[in-house]
Amino acid sequence: MKRIEDENRIVFFTSSKFKFEEASRIAQNFGLDMIRKSENIIEIQSESLEEIALFKARQLMKRYRNLTFVVEDDGIFIEALNGFPGPYSSYVYRTIGNSGILKLMKGEVNRGALFKSVVVLHVPNMGLKSFTGICKGTIAKSIHHGRMFGYDPIFKPLKADKCFSEMTPEEKNLFSHRAKSFKKVFSFLIKIRSTINGEDYG
Ligand code: IMP
Predict the structure, then answer these.
(1) How many CB atoms lie within 10 A of CB 169?
(2) Nearest CA residue ID for atom 7, ligand 1
(3) Is 88 in the pocket of ligand 1 (CB under 6 A)?
(4) 114-138 burial by CB neighbour count: b if 16+ within 10 A, else e?
(5) Quick one: which of 32, 57, 83, 178 is 20 to 30 A from 50 by CA?
(6) Alpha carbon distance 37, 179 (integer Å)
(7) Is 4 a residue whose pLDDT tops 50?
(8) Atom of ligand 1 nearest to the CA of 92
(9) Is 106 in contact with 79 (CB distance < 8 Å)?
(10) Is 178's C-beta closer than 6 angstroms to any atom of ligand 1?
(11) Atom of ligand 1 at shortest range from CA of 72
(12) 8 Cα to the center of ligand 1, angstroms
């Protein structure tokens, strides 16, 4: 029984309290217990979010082979900028930020953009599996306030009447890329756990 109890805990390796706040609410809805841990890991530059996330997960797998854990990588892809900043979103945010993006978009009629989240899940003895979530939306014309996480102050999802930054984490979870990828992760985990439980304890 102890083994299953331990497996019920999922570790989310992230330095972002915002990401954790959103993902852990979804975990709770699935009846799962998730904790946050920051860890020094090398992040590669690549055009593929999945490759970046897998690279992080492989490093952690060597250190935490017995843990059920997740890592995530995200990007915002802006149509009028041919998908920029995409996998370079973190660097672009640190350098030009939201005001820099709005300058690049000045006078641009096509405001279409999408957020993508790739989550890599590690399950002991099962290896790694990745899950993707996408949220389509538009780039606002000015910086909106509220919960100031990354590009949230300039991104408005389709079918929403406000930017992500103006939403509570629960509201954001109704639309977001992260909510979609994590829901897939948790559904998968519950499915494989019920199979394992059935075989081992049924
Ligand atoms: P990373 O996955 O932390 O590398 O994310 C890339 C960049 O996108 C960082 O600057 C994050 O702050 C930003 N970012 C990631 N997820 C979100 C989100 O849900 N909303 C707004 N910005 C985000």
Answers:
(1) 19
(2) 90
(3) no
(4) bbbbbbbbbbeeeeebbbebebebb
(5) 32
(6) 19
(7) no
(8) 10
(9) no
(10) yes
(11) 2
(12) 27
Q: Using a 6 Å cutoff on CB, does residue 150 contact ligand 1? A: yes
Q: Which of 152, 181, 185, 184 has its CA nearest to residue 169?
A: 152
How is 115-146 classified by DSSP, letter by letter?
Answer: EEEEEEEEETTTEEEEEEEEEEEEE-SS---S
Whose Cα sits closest to atom 16 in ligand 1?
Answer: 74
What tens digit of pLDDT does each residue of 74-93 get? 999 999 999 999 999 999 99
Instruction: Give whole-number Cα distances, 80 to 85, 102, 109, 134, in Å.
Output: 11, 12, 9, 18
Sorted by where each starts, the structural domains of the chain and their CATH numbers stand as 9-196 (3.90.950.10)
pLDDT band of residue 22 (cuts 50, 70, 90) is: very high
> Which amino acid belongs to residue 187?
S
pLDDT tens string 90-104: 999 999 999 999 999
Instruction: State the catalytic residues.
Output: 73
| pTM (2 d.p.) | 0.94
Ligand 1 atom closest to Cα of residue 43: 4
Extract the tokens encoding 72: 């995530």
Alpha-carbon span 54 to 60, nearest angstrom: 10
